[in-house]
Amino acid sequence: MLAATLLFIFVLASFIGVEIIGKIPPTLHTPLMSGSNAISGITIVGALLAMQGRYHGAAQVLGFVAIVFAMINVVGGFLVTDRMLAMFASKKKTPGKQG
Amino acid sequence: MHIYLYIVAAVLFILGIKRLGKVRTARSGNTVAAAGMLLAVLGVLVEAQALSWFWAAVAMAVGSVIGWLVATRVAMTAMPEMVAALNGFGGGASALVAMTEQIEDTSQVTLATFGGMMAIAVPASIVIGSATLTGSGIAYLKLQGKSVPHPIPKAQRNLAHAAIAVAILAISLWSVYSTGAWSMTSMVLLTLLSAVIGVFLVMPIGGADMPVVVALLNSFSGVAAAASGFVIGNQMLIVAGALVGASGVILTQIMCKAMNRSLLNVLIGGVGDGKVAKDAKDYKNIKSTSPEEVAMLLDGASSCVIVPGYGLAVAQAQHACANLAKEIERRGCMVRYAIHPVAGRMPGHMNVLLAEADVPYEKLLELDKINPEFQSTDVVIVVGANDVVNPLAREKTGSPIDGMPILDVDKARTVVMIKRSLSPGYAGVKNPLFEFDNTLMVFLDAKEALQGILDELKGM
To answer: Which of B27, B304, B324, B373 lies 20 to 30 angstroms, CA to CA, from B245?
Structure first.
């Protein structure tokens, strides 16, 4: 794809990133960081594409490692975020009793 | 086909991050983002028809199992380390993607022949990704409390870093304009130097500034993913990487603001490094007390504020803390928590820990909400926090915490500091609060102290 088109996409997506993150309460900063971190595991897409059609032995090995790293990022990130947010959610059921 | 899956995935990422911003919708937001990831992976499986399915499946299984094992076992107190490590894996994967491209493409021709985008994106992805990997590794060690001193003396440090940066630029150029074995050699050199600069940049950063670093590395892992998207010409990587990169920048800004520091100051200042740590000899007029006395104090109090810090996390004392708060409340005393934006070693870390201990999040008050309340508070219990309550920050003394917004706990009638010793916080400065007339010190581990106070209180 055209370099300029990709750059165009990058710039627009960056602005969206800035806009949607602006008003997040500090309470959620840790889950937000681990959640958005899991999204940066999107590089799994790159890793899988990088592994296909590679003929050089070193490239194949690095591609394999890239997939492992990216999957740790994806699975670890989403699961740990869910664990944290499950605890926040459990508090929602008893909002009436504080003084 | 795959492009439509990518579009839906990108929309789900945006909606997911948006939902992560509200307590009520946060958990579903995470699920929505995870669904987006699933679609993106389905998309790539459709796109990558020539993939060697067996090895791809093995690699994905290995990564998933490791990720699952770690995520389900890590303690909530170790969350900052966990996020730092995950940042590193993301960055590392992006660097590796760019490397496979360079190895595969440059046996006969140079990267430059593929055009400007490749010539910039490949080295950029390798540099940012490798530096994120090793920088996160150092951040992980520092967050675990390990000391990792910089091998280069402070006076020459900035010069050395600048020299490495110049070398990285030069080798990037070399790597873009070389083929075959030279291309490989330059790529390996580039990776190594980027790894070194990642280590060197995080090493001197003080413990108090770790939240900023973790947020910044988070942003870098996104930028690295976007860069590798340019390498392989994939829109999905670019969109998701840019989203994470931009959100990381905003988070970094929020952290810097909370500490009244500029990002440059955090990165170059190296606070907490090389400062002379004051020890017990520097303090006079310290009043030490016992859990029993604190219990008596609480028995007669009508309002109490608890200030949790990293000491609470280290001692895993969040449950003891919540139990004590419940007992104090049962006796008719109002209890609230004051959360400094950089309490602990990661933004929002205290909120996660107290949520684990079933403390309703409505009771956690932010700095500007709780500060006017201290004047009318009977007892403040500071649990393992130090720099965030240091009144020195309000004065201009040239100390590293100058101008940092703090919790004005000294305005309360009595301040109980639960702290193992008189050692300084991460900023390495003396805390005059310890000597104030209205301050009582409890020299115990946070869990021991809180449990002790609770036992005494129950016996009254």
So the answer is: B27
On whether the CB atoms of residues B168 and B195 are closer than 8 A, the answer is no
* Overall residue count recorded for chain B in this entry: 460
pLDDT of residue B208: 67
**The predicted structure's pLDDT at residue B106:** 85
B264 and B299 together in one domain: no
For A9, nearest residue in chain B (alpha carbons): B239
**Residue pointed to by tokens 């070693």:** B345
Say how far apart CA B11 and CA A39 lie, in whole Å.
12
Least confident of A57-66, B73-82, B142-151, B211-220: B142-151
The model's confidence at residue A73, banded by pLDDT at 50, 70 and 90, is: very high
Domain end: B219, B239, B269, which one? B269
Contact B34 A6 (CB under 8 A): no
Interface test with A, best of B213, B237, B363, B369 (most A CBs within 10 A): B237
- Quick one: how far is CA B178 from the chain centroid? 39
Q: Is B14 domain-assigned? A: no
β-pair partners for B414: B379
The one-letter amino acid at B180: G
Which region among B65-74, B190-199, B354-363 has the lowest average model confidence (pLDDT)? B354-363
Rounded average pLDDT over B183-210: 89
Q: Do B453 and B381 sit in the same domain of this protein?
A: yes
Is B249 in Cβ contact with A41 (below 8 Å)?
A: no
Structural domain including B252 reads 74-269
Task: Identify the domain containing residue A47 by its residue range.
Answer: 30-88
User: Residue A13 domain-assigned?
Assistant: no
**Prediction ipTM score:** 0.90
Using DSSP bridges, classify how beta strands B379-383 and B414-418 pair: parallel, antiparallel or unpaired. parallel
Contact call for residues B264 and B252 (beta carbons, < 8 A)? no
Least confident of B48-52, B231-235, B362-366, B455-459: B48-52
